[in-house]
UniProtKB/TrEMBL annotation:
Protein family according to the UniProt entry: Belongs to the adenylyl cyclase class-3 family.
Pfam families (UniProt xref): Guanylate_cyc, Response_reg
Domain Guanylate cyclase: 254-380
Name of protein: Adenylate/guanylate cyclase domain-containing protein
Gene Ontology BP annotations: cAMP biosynthetic process; phosphorelay signal transduction system
Provenance organism: Halotia branconii CENA392
Response regulatory domain residues: 10-128
Source species, domain of life: Bacteria
Keyword Phosphoprotein: yes
Keyword tags: Phosphoprotein
One GO MF term attached to the UniProt entry: adenylate cyclase activity
Coiled coil regions, renumbered to chain: none
PANTHER family according to UniProt: ADENYLATE CYCLASE, TERMINAL-DIFFERENTIATION SPECIFIC, ADENYLATE CYCLASE, TERMINAL-DIFFERENTIATION SPECIFIC-RELATED
């Protein structure tokens, strides 16, 4: 069923200074999908919000008519129509105590005014999208409840007919008992009108319908294991029976590939059944993190998986970090039982792709197509070369709404196998265990100096810095990889004229 929620972004600014209202209005004027409303009197804020139904509220914290934190409290009260609307508070300066109090009262974000227009628009879009998705989920729940109520009402009328049949047998049946049911124009109404002759058929059919519904529900649940419900929603299909070969959606999305490192070594002493049990135990732990971050698992690839995130890089990177934390917890259990810990590599890229149904009429499955999908698979493969847990492309970094929430380390400028153009790759350190993350952050200044010299062709100086990195963190495989390259270049006496700072991989 198509959602009735309007996806237009509506901004309400509450600020007593009209000059601020004018400034923000100009910032948003070029955004065709953003509607701006301004309220200069905080005492009228709730009324204005009720009239314009904003998807995000910007509120000043210093206004003569009302204390700013008090207005935050009003806007966030449970009986207020604005209690769930994202609230970004504005202040003339950074005040940690006031900021903390605003967040305690329920504010979603904090900006020093006037903010940069690019940042302001990004935050408005981010919070509005989250709020619109929240409204859609509420609407879906309401529709589901309405359908349950409709079915309950239908079952109640079936019960009336069934009860009337018993009354006929006892000769106490009163026609008005089924007066409302008899008004129906469907089969149940006909049964009510010709009740005496049809009651046995009604009972038999009711039993058949119950059995059929039970079977249908079980069948739909079984289909959901092969074609997830979120996949159907993404393809804009209500049920599995609506899906056709060739159905697809084409858009910019984030795609993730992940794989267990050294799976052959781990599984070589297992029976086929033990291998199945092991892979399923692992996937059972990490797969929910994809769904909980609004991703869609396109397919399982033995010990790995491919997933897409229709809403972009933020969901994908958050899911990647969460997956690695699940692996860390799983490893603690494995080590306690005497098993080898797992190392999982994750690659994430953002680009345009098509996601849909492929195959033939009698056998089809979901898949994604794009050169960007192939590139992501290559990025995942690079995690084993660099010895990292979560690797992202420069496009992924550019699409993050707030890259500052992560500890990110630039790794390399490289050409992967099968492509001609170089791509910058980065490591998300938040996906590492705390000990490794600490050592990499500690050695990061030397690592960056080493990279600068390496890219400029100062190999001897780069070697010194990479050796410093390894003296701090001997397990830093990336630094070791660079040292191997540098030793090769020095042995080959590579000149600066031949050097462009790009490494070209010949393996997947």
């Amino acid at each position: 069923m198509t959602s009735t929620i309007d996806e237009k972004i509506i901004v309400l600014l509450i600020d007593d200074q009209s000059i601020i209202g004018e400034a923000i209005s100009r910032m948003l004027a070029t955004e065709q999908d953003i509607v701006f409303h301004y309220c200069s009197d905080p005492t009228l804020a709730l009324k204005v919000a009720k009239d314009c139904n904003p998807t995000v509220i910007l509120q000043d914290l210093v206004m003569p008519q009302m204390e700013g934190l008090l207005l935050v409290k009003y806007l966030r009260s449970q009986n207020s129509p604005t209690c769930h609307i994202p609230l970004i508070v504005l202040s003339s300066k950074e005040e940690p105590i006031i900021k903390a109090k605003a967040f305690e009262l329920g504010a979603n974000d904090y900006l020093v005014k006037l903010p940069n227009n690019i940042e302001l628009i990004a935050r408005i879009r981010y919070h509005s999208k989250a709020y619109i998705n929240f409204l859609k989920r509420q609407e879906a729940e309401a529709l589901f409840k309405a359908e349950i109520m409709r079915q309950a009402a239908y079952i109640e009328e079936v019960d009336r007919v069934t009860s009337a049949a018993y009354e006929v047998e006892r000769d106490v049946f009163q026609p008005e008992t089924l007066a409302e049911v008899a008004k129906r124009s469907d089969e149940l109404g006909q049964l009510a009108r010709v009740f005496t002759n049809m009651v046995r058929i009604v009972k038999a059919r009711e039993k058949e319908l119950t059995t059929a519904n039970t079977r249908l529900e079980s069948l739909l649940q079984a289909y959901g294991r092969f074609v997830p419900h979120e996949y159907l929603r993404f393809l804009r299909k209500e049920t599995i029976t609506d899906v056709q070969l060739g159905d697809h959606v084409s858009k910019v999305m984030a795609v993730m590939f992940s794989d267990i490192r050294s799976f052959t070594t781990i599984s070589e002493n297992m029976t086929p059944q033990e291998n199945f049990n092991f892979v399923n135990a692992y996937l059972k732990r990490v797969s929910p993190e994809i769904r909980s971050h609004y991703g869609i698992i396109v397919k399982f690839l033995g010990d790995g998986m491919m997933a897409v995130f229709p809403d972009g890089a933020d969901d994908a990177v958050a899911a990647g970090v969460a997956k690695q934390k699940q692996v860390y917890e799983y490893n603690k259990q494995r080590v306690e039982k005497g098993y080898l810990p797992l190392q999982v590599g994750i690659g994430i890229h953002v680009g345009h792709m098509m996601l849909g149904m492929v195959g033939e009429e009698n056998r089809m499955q979901g898949d994604a197509f794009s050169d960007n999908v192939n590139l992501t698979a290559r990025l995942e493969g690079l995690t084993k070369f660099y010895g990292v847990s979560l690797l992202i492309s420069e496009q992924t970094l550019e699409h993050l709404s707030n890259s500052g929430k992560y500890q990110i380390r630039f790794l390399d400028r490289a050409v992967v196998k099968g492509r001609n153009e170089p791509i910058s790759v980065y490591e998300i350190l938040d996906a590492e265990i705390d000990e490794i993350k600490y050592l990499k952050l500690k050695s990061q200044p030397d690592f960056e100096q080493a990279l600068d010299n390496y890219r400029q062709g100062n190999f001897e100086q780069a070697k010194v810095y990479f050796e410093k990195v390894l003296s701090i963190n001997s397990a830093d495989k990336t630094a070791g990889l660079y040292l191997s390259r540098i030793n090769y270049f020095l042995l080959e006496d590579k000149t600066l004229e031949e050097w462009d700072g790009v490494w070209r991989f010949t393996e997947k």
